[in-house]
Amino acid sequence: MEPILRDTIIEIDLDRIAHNVTKIREMVGKNVAVAAVVKTNQV
17: closest CA among 32, 30, 36? Predict the structure, then answer.
């Protein structure tokens, strides 16, 4: 079976990520490491 290939586009709102990181840091404190994960909703 041949794989199905199609164009893929990803849009990342860096301002929204920065806002979310700021809010998370407010909750957990500056001495806590924060890691982010980018995931997809596969179609």
Answer: 36
**Angle (nearest 5°) at CA 28 between 20 and 31:** 110
How many Å apart are CA 6 and CA 2, to the nearest integer?
13
Q: Catalogue the long-range contacts made by 8-14 (C-beta closer than 8 Å, 24 or more residues apart).
A: 12/38
Which two tokens mark 25? 């840091």
Contact, 34 vs 21, CB < 8 A? Answer: yes
Residue pair 21/27 in contact (Cβ under 8 Å)? The answer is no
| pLDDT tens-digit map of 1-43 | 888 888 888 888 999 989 999 999 999 998 999 998 877 776 6
